[in-house]
Amino acid sequence: MTCQHCGVPIPAGSRRDRRYCSHNCNALASYYRRKAGIAPPPRWQHPALRSDNLLVRTAAEHARQLGQTNDWSPSTIRCTIDGLTTLLDDLPPGSRVQSSQVRARIPRKPPILRVTQVLTDLDLLDDDTVPTIRSWIDRNTEQLPPGFAEPVRAWLLTLLDGDRRARPRSPSSLYVYFSFVRPAIQRWAVDRDHLREITRADVAAVLKPLRGHQHRTTVAALRSLFQFAKRRGLVFANPTTRLKATRVEPTLMPLIDTAIHAIEQATTNPVQRLIVALAVVHAARAATIRQLTLDDLDLPNHRITLAGHTQRLSELTRHALRTWLEHRRTAWPHSPNRHVLISARTAIATTPVSNVYLQNQIRGLGVTTDRLRQDRILHEALTVGADPLHLSLVFNLSLSTASRYADIAQQLLADQPGFDASSR
């Protein structure tokens, strides 16, 4: 390309919409154009918008409209169209793009998330990627001895997908179960070659040094593994039959005033204040906070719906919500996401923020959302006299959970007769 004013070659690597070799030539060309009464040249458009390939042209136009709606930068729009052109230019008619091709074929610069969104909107994307949890299962079970690897892998996949007798478990449950089973298998593999060789004495030897939650969780994980293996005929006998886990006495204590004051001082941005308000005032779980949508809010009537349970919105939470929504509207004014909490990644999508994002927001507070939630329920139990029915109605708890908090509150009140819950 050459400069449209002086004819000097434009430096290599310049933007495709560059017309002049320098700002001086740009200014002179504009001056002479105005002096001659000539209209300015039309704005540069991506070649894909005029492509002979209907599919490329449609995708490029959709990316341009989507970028304008969601305030993408011009560079992001250009790079997104570049990626779409690479993927769709030679796509056979009636075919679809595989998710694995998106990362493999397009250059590194195009924003893959935007390219994927356009392909999804046009129904041109097939998701053939292996879920992270399945890759994790394959990678970790391959490190086990041969006689244990296949049974454990089949067990984890059954936990993940479920079967006729069990519901699917969350990936976090698999991480926890495997983290407690792996040390036992590594110990057994020293003098055992297969899972079917494990005896009750071997299980007892593994459990003997464990205490508290470690003992209880290990028992639950081993029972799940051997029950699965017995149903599938992978072992002759279940060595965990009638195995009982030690009862873990509740040790939950209310947060002290110093800790509460430190948390208040550490909340420095709108998203932190909102997360803390929902957990401290309404005892909302992390998943409930992530799934909260704009449709669940009724700010004029001071109402909020959390996990299907409508309750009165406190002034503290209402103020935190208004502050966050103003920030949200300023940062992402055209976001299609209906969730209350959004990030730079989810602002262009419709999915909730991840649990990692939520926990990272309060990492510096020294507590988790679960701990704040537990403290709120425990404080209510201490205030109303450990009434499980009241806890169940206020926080939408199951009777067993409400009774557990009531029992803890009764123990605290019995141990500290001078404890005054209303002073907090």
Provide a descriptive summary of the structure in words.
The chain is mostly helical and 424 residues long. The chain has 3 domains: 80 residues; 100 residues, no CATH class; 155 residues, hpI Integrase, Chain A, CATH 1.10.443.10. It has 18 helices and 5 strands. The strands form 2 sheets. Strands 3-4-5 form a 3-stranded antiparallel beta sheet, with no helix packed on it. A hairpin with a 2-residue loop joins strand 4 and strand 5. The chain is flat and about 95 Å long. The N and C termini lie far apart (73 Å).
Outline of the structure:
The protein has 424 residues and is mainly α.
Q: What would the keywords be for this entry?
A:
3-stranded antiparallel beta sheet; 3 domains; 54% helix; 5 strands; two-stranded parallel ribbon; 18 helices; 424 residues; mainly alpha; hpI Integrase, Chain A
